[in-house]
C-alpha cells in the first residue's frame, strides 16, 4: 500500500444521485479514507459546495482557475491514491472516455494513473444507449472499474437499470479495488496518542514534542481494517476524525483513568502517546509570579503500560519508545519491563520524527526478532505494526 493510498478523490457528477454521495463520503471517511470532493460545476445544481466542504472538512474546488498558484490539477492528482466518481453521468463518462479536461475533475482524472472506479447513475435509456455503452467499454478496457447501476424505480415514474447502487455495495466494491484488508473487523483497538501535559499552575505545564500524527495514522489504519477504534488523545486536534470514539485527556493520570475504563474490552492496545515521566508535586491554582518561578519539585507518574500489563488477560500490548542513544538495548528492556508484546523504537536524535509524516526505527518482538524500517511513512508503519499485532492475537 502506498503512503498516499488513503487519499481519495470523490468526483461528483451532475445527477440527482449526487445527494446520495454525501452518505458515501461519510461511509468512506468512517473506513479511514481521507476524501477530497471534486464536484463538476453542473453538479452544484444538485448539491452545493458548502455541503461537500462541511462534510469533508476540505475545499471542494470545481475549476482549475481556483487557487491557480497551487496548480491543483497536478498537486491533487499526485496526492490521490484512488478515485471514485459517483454519480458518473452519461456526459461525464463521455468526457472521461474521450479525454476531455474541461473542469478540474476531468483534469485530475487525466493527470493521475491510480485506480479509478465509476459509479454510473442515469435514466435506463441513457445507460443503454450504444454511445454510453461504447464509452463504458472503452473505460473498462483502460482499467477503470465501472459498477453496473441497479435496476428499479428511477426519479420519475419509470423504472429500469440506471439507479445509483446502495452505498454499502459501492463501498464493498471500492474496498475490493483498494485491496484494504478487513482483518480487524469486530476487534477493539485502543490507541493513545499525543503528549500528556502536567500542570504546574493554571497557565504552565510540563509537556513534550509529540504531535499525535503517529497515533492518528494508527487509528485510521485500524479503522480501515474494520476495527472498533477508541483513541485516547492527549492535547491534539481530533476534530477531523470520524467514526472513531475519542476521549480527550490532558495529564498522565487522566490518561490512566481513560485506559482503565477501556482496557478490559480491548483486543489490541497501542500506547503511542508520549507520557510525562513526572509531574509537579503541587498543582497551583494561582499563577506563580516570575520572581518565584525558579524550581519545580517533581514526583514520578505511574508507568501506565507496566500497570496495565499486571491486569492483562488476552490483550496484545504494543508500546513506543523514542530514544536518542542505545535504541535497541533500551527498547528491549522496555519490552520486557513493561510486559509488552511489541515495541517500536524511534530514533529521535536531533528532534527527528516529531511532527513529520515519516519515521525510521526498529520493531522489536518478544521472540527476539528485530525489523528495521528506514524512512517509512507513519501510515505504512501503522499497517506493519497492526500486521504483527494481529499475528500475536492469533
Ligand atoms: O519509558 P518510556 O516513556 O520510554 O516508554 C515508552 C512507552 O511506555 C510508550 O508506549 C509510552 O506510551 C509508555 N509509557 C507509559 N507510562 C509512562 C511513560 C510511558 O505507559 N509513565
TrEMBL record:
GO terms for biological process: coenzyme A biosynthetic process; pantothenate catabolic process. InterPro entries: CoaB-like_sf, CoaBC, DNA/pantothenate-metab_flavo_C, Flavin_trans-like, Flavoprotein. Residues 184-389 form the DNA/pantothenate metabolism flavoprotein C-terminal domain. One of its GO terms (cellular component) is phosphopantothenoylcysteine decarboxylase complex. SUPFAM superfamilies: CoaB-like, Homo-oligomeric flavin-containing Cys decarboxylases, HFCD. Residues 7-173 form the Flavoprotein domain. One of its GO terms (molecular function) is phosphopantothenoylcysteine decarboxylase activity. Keywords: Decarboxylase, Lyase. This is Unannotated protein. It comes from freshwater metagenome.
